[in-house]
Amino acid sequence: MNPPSTRSRLLLLPRELRNIIYEYAFTEPGGLVADATSRYDNWTRFRTACNTSDRTRDANQLRLVCRQLYAETSGLGITYNDLTFQRRGGAVFVSVYDLFDQFVYHCAPGYLSKIKRVTILDYTTLVPEEDVVLARLLSPSLVRFSRAYPSATIIVRFQWNATPYRVDAMRHFLRGNALWPFEIRHYTRSGVCAFARLFEHAAADCSQNLRFSLTMDFDEEKFSEIIARKYVGNEEVEYLVGFFKGLHEDGI
Q1: I need a surface site. Which of 88, 120, 207, 246 has the fewest CB within 10 A?
Q2: At a CB cut-off of 8 Å and minimum separation 6, what does 174 contact?
Q3: So what's the pLDDT on residue 190?
Q4: CA distance 132 to 130
Q5: One-letter-per-residue 3-state SS of 18-79
Q6: Cβ distance 169 to 184 under 8 Å?
């Protein structure tokens, strides 16, 4: 491609109009490729990628460059605004919360403001003691980040034995809402959901964008069986399974 002899008129257009032109160039089906069989030596001919007919040839270099740039960058598969932290142990144990703290400490504020979603995977299988849980949930970096960047969603996922009642208990103590308050009182008294009380202490310091989930993966069959014992109608069961699946995906 020959360099322009003068400043491109495209750069003189308003930014909004340039964006429309670029969007058209990126999304035009087929794209354009150089025609190596062109009979002309003094200029470059282009054709659509899906057609070899001479009638489809074009000398639109802007579309060709944009399509090539899109093809070269679309396969990178990296999204810097959706981050996941996980740690399963090792020779020197570093918790997933320590990793997040180190990331926030070393990351420039300008990049932190672009983050839209953070997922922290805590593979602790046993219910921790109260002081351990609170120390993790209320780690200074985690709380400060959620407050400083309210547009970002932070989800902490646990690998605990989740049931609809335990998830509902967690939702009750953390957000003040519950589907089955009677069952929550029963399970809390029996000690099965005692761990959920820990979130009651954390609720005062947790912003709405700092959310929690008891599951790494949602077991739809398990939740359906448990809910079906309480509700007979298929529509009610289907609705509630979808409700708890939403709590799994977006946190409580």
Answers
A1: 88
A2: 199, 200, 202, 203, 206, 212, 252
A3: 47
A4: 5
A5: HHHHHHHHHHCCCCEEECCCCCCCCCCCEEECCCCCHHHCECCHHHHHHHHHHHHHCCCCCC
A6: yes
Q: Are 212 and 252 in contact (CB under 8 A)?
A: yes
| Maximum Cα interatomic distance, the chain, rounded to a whole number of Å | 87
Per-block average pLDDT, block size 10, for the chain (252 residues)?
55 67 59 52 53 52 66 54 75 73 82 86 63 60 87 86 78 75 59 55 72 85 83 78 87 84
Distance CA 155, CA 178 (A): 20
| 66 half-sphere exposure, CB direction, 13 A CA radius | 18
Q: Measure the CA–CA gap between 133 and 170, rounded to whole angstroms.
A: 14
Amino acid sitting at position 170: M
Residue 39 amino acid letter: R
Torsion sign (Cα): 41, 42, 46, 52 = negative
Picking from 235, 223, 128, the residue whose alpha carbon sits closest to that of residue 167 is 223
Sign of CA dihedral 124, 127, 128, 133: positive
Give the pLDDT confidence score for residue 153 in this predicted structure.
92
Residue type, 15: R
Contact 58, 46 (CB under 8 A): yes
User: 120: helix, coil or strand?
Assistant: strand
Q: Does this model's pTM top 0.85?
A: no
Q: Report the pLDDT value the prediction gives residue 61, as an integer from 0 to 100.
A: 63
The per-residue pLDDT for 42 is 47
pLDDT at 56: 46
